[in-house]
């Protein structure tokens, strides 16, 4: 997924997501579609907007947004929209995700909050 994203191949990225690839997966250097440097985030917003069902949750020991290490007091959370592993501070937003039939407000990261409220990628 990251390679397709790096080359701007939106159709391949979306096909991989439909096949169940975890959007939040990082490579050995900690790079993912969320932190890879691009001129704009339009492709990322489009991919997030295209998600049709709850994605697989990412694994790890650090917050994918701020890099904080998880401990007994620093708990792991997952953005229910994109599946990223995030700390409480980086996932303070809660909202229902109607496209996943989640009527009750659930935890989402800031990027997904923006996509879900502003409709980026449409």
Automatic annotation (TrEMBL):
Q: Which GO terms describe its biological process?
A: endocytic recycling; receptor internalization
Q: Which UniProt keywords apply?
A: Metal-binding, Zinc, Zinc-finger
Q: What are the annotated GO cellular component locations? A: early endosome
Q: Does the keyword Cytoplasm apply?
A: no
The record's SUPFAM superfamilies line, in alphabetical order, gives:
FYVE/PHD zinc finger (SSF57903)
Q: Which GO terms describe its molecular function?
A: ubiquitin binding; zinc ion binding
Q: Which Pfam families match?
A: FYVE
Which residues are in the FYVE-type domain? 57-117
**Statement: the UniProt record of this protein carries the keyword Cell membrane:** no
Q: Which SMART domains match?
A: FYVE
Q: Which PANTHER family match?
A: HEPATOCYTE GROWTH FACTOR-REGULATED TYROSINE KINASE SUBSTRATE
**Protein's name according to its UniProt entry:** FYVE-type domain-containing protein
Identify the species of origin: Toxocara canis
């Amino acid at each position: 997924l990251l390679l397709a994203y790096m080359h701007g191949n939106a159709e391949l990225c979306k096909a991989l997501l439909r096949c169940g690839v975890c959007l939040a997966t990082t490579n050995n250097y900690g790079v993912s579609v969320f932190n890879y440097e691009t001129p704009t985030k339009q492709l990322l917003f489009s991919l997030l907007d295209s998600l049709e069902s709850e994605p697989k949750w990412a694994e790890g020991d650090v917050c994918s947004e701020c890099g904080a290490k998880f401990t007994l007091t620093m708990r792991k959370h997952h953005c229910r929209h994109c599946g990223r592993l995030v700390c409480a501070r980086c996932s303070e937003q809660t909202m229902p995700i109607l496209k996943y039939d989640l009527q009750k407000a659930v935890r989402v990261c800031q990027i997904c909050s923006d996509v879900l409220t502003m409709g980026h990628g449409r």
